[in-house]
Amino acid sequence: MLQVISDFRQWAYESADPRTRDWFLISNPAYVLTLESAYLYFIYSYGPRMMANRKPYNLKTIISIYNAFMVLANSFFAYKFLRHSYLGGEYNLFCQPMNHSTDENSIALVTNCYWYLLIRALDFLDTVFFVLRKKFDHITAQHVSHHALIVLNGYVFMYMGMDGQTMFGICMNCCIHIVMYSYYFVAMLGPRFKPYLWWKRHLTKAQIYQHIAIIIHGFIPIFYDCGYPPEFIMMMMPQGFLGLALFINFYKFAYENKSLKDSINENVCVLKQD
């Protein structure tokens, strides 16, 4: 058994992206697994017990600052990714191979992907804030699985190779997060700003269209050989279809089912995508 594990680790290392496989937090899966375990332990065990006899914390200012920071951070990375890929890196929008290049542009791209993965890990604070505010009904299986999987998959791609065809989805993800966190920021300003949030329904539609576009674009290397490993596409598709199903289900519940629409809590926000 130990030999099998050793052989697998050797295969994984030899197949990994030589540019990133020895980077801090990427070189050993123990780092990301520890982070994920700590996240799950806090939101499901330690956090609820800690808050059992406490009143909900008033985190309005902290969350507003957090939302503003996430708008700026995602704007920064959207610019960087587009600059080093489709709008300046000579990327092919239809199908882009993965070649583990070491030129200046490619290194800049994967370096920004590394820091962007840390931003996606920072999304864990969304759930932490729910715990500290005792909004336990917001901590759904869908919410938690999405946050956990996006970081885990991000780690795998950073280890094996983040550039290539997947950059399309990363760029779209950045852009949708800019809009989403802008919505959350305005929503935290209070009831008087509610009239300015009329576009929530359209944001949900945009999230659905994003998933559809990423899935369709992601399937291209399976039918057209441009040098991007098809197995990587198959690895990321389950999360794509899961996210699409969740958003479609939310849209139907929130906007199409008239009998249930009136019972929706006014505090329910648009489901988040990463």
UniProtKB/TrEMBL annotation:
<feature type="transmembrane region" description="Helical">
    <location>
        <begin position="23"/>
        <end position="44"/>
    </location>
</feature>
<dbReference type="GO" id="GO:0030148">
    <property type="term" value="P:sphingolipid biosynthetic process"/>
</dbReference>
<keyword id="KW-0808">Transferase</keyword>
<feature type="transmembrane region" description="Helical">
    <location>
        <begin position="236"/>
        <end position="254"/>
    </location>
</feature>
<keyword id="KW-1133">Transmembrane helix</keyword>
<comment type="similarity">
    <text>Belongs to the ELO family.</text>
</comment>
<keyword id="KW-0812">Transmembrane</keyword>
<dbReference type="GO" id="GO:0034625">
    <property type="term" value="P:fatty acid elongation, monounsaturated fatty acid"/>
</dbReference>
<dbReference type="GO" id="GO:0042761">
    <property type="term" value="P:very long-chain fatty acid biosynthetic process"/>
</dbReference>
<dbReference type="GO" id="GO:0034626">
    <property type="term" value="P:fatty acid elongation, polyunsaturated fatty acid"/>
</dbReference>
<keyword id="KW-0275">Fatty acid biosynthesis</keyword>
<dbReference type="GO" id="GO:0019367">
    <property type="term" value="P:fatty acid elongation, saturated fatty acid"/>
</dbReference>
<dbReference type="InterPro" id="IPR002076">
    <property type="entry name" value="ELO_fam"/>
</dbReference>
<feature type="transmembrane region" description="Helical">
    <location>
        <begin position="167"/>
        <end position="187"/>
    </location>
</feature>
<feature type="transmembrane region" description="Helical">
    <location>
        <begin position="208"/>
        <end position="224"/>
    </location>
</feature>
<feature type="transmembrane region" description="Helical">
    <location>
        <begin position="65"/>
        <end position="82"/>
    </location>
</feature>
<dbReference type="Pfam" id="PF01151">
    <property type="entry name" value="ELO"/>
</dbReference>
<keyword id="KW-0443">Lipid metabolism</keyword>
<dbReference type="GO" id="GO:0005789">
    <property type="term" value="C:endoplasmic reticulum membrane"/>
</dbReference>
<protein>
    <recommendedName>
        <fullName>Elongation of very long chain fatty acids protein</fullName>
        <ecNumber>2.3.1.199</ecNumber>
    </recommendedName>
</protein>
<keyword id="KW-0276">Fatty acid metabolism</keyword>
<keyword id="KW-0444">Lipid biosynthesis</keyword>
<keyword id="KW-0472">Membrane</keyword>
<dbReference type="GO" id="GO:0009922">
    <property type="term" value="F:fatty acid elongase activity"/>
</dbReference>
